[in-house]
Write a structure and sequence with these properties.
2,3-Dihydroxybiphenyl 1,2-Dioxygenase, domain 1; alpha+beta; 16% strand; 4 strands; 2 helices
Length: 124
């Protein structure tokens, strides 16, 4: 059976697409979509990816109308948290260390939840 090799993109609506793209680039290092085919898109490092459906009544994403959440792998969660807080971004760090790693949550300027995940050392 053929399988997908990873996530090729995350697409969502925005009130201010250019401003939101700049926030993701400035704070998380996610470069915007190239404007031409001559430009290279953002390349993520390979690693584990989770694709999961949650129950409709979950509060994991925040407000009930929220239909999606992006989870970004990070190399060093503590360094990322310092960087974001230094830029004035509110970061909620989950104090529990899970078998699959550590997590933190931020909200982008439009209130979308963004989960940050530092996989445990035993994961690829």
């Amino acid at each position: 059976m053929e399988r997908v090799t990873g996530i090729g993109g995350v697409f969502f609506r925005s009130r201010d697409p250019e401003g939101l793209a700049a926030w993701y680039e400035d704070h998380l290092g996610v470069t915007p979509v190239p404007l031409t085919y001559a430009e290279e898109p953002w390349h993520s490092q390979s690693g584990p990816t989770v694709f999961a459906a949650f129950a409709d009544e979950t509060d994991h994403f925040g407000r009930p109308a929220q239909q999606w959440m992006v989870n970004f792998r990070v190399r060093d969660l503590d360094a990322m948290v310092r960087q974001l807080r230094g830029a004035g971004v509110l970061v909620e760090v989950d104090q529990e260390v899970y078998p699959n790693g550590r997590f933190a949550r931020v909200y982008d300027p439009e209130g979308n939840p963004v989960e940050l995940w530092e996989p445990c050392a035993t994961l690829p």
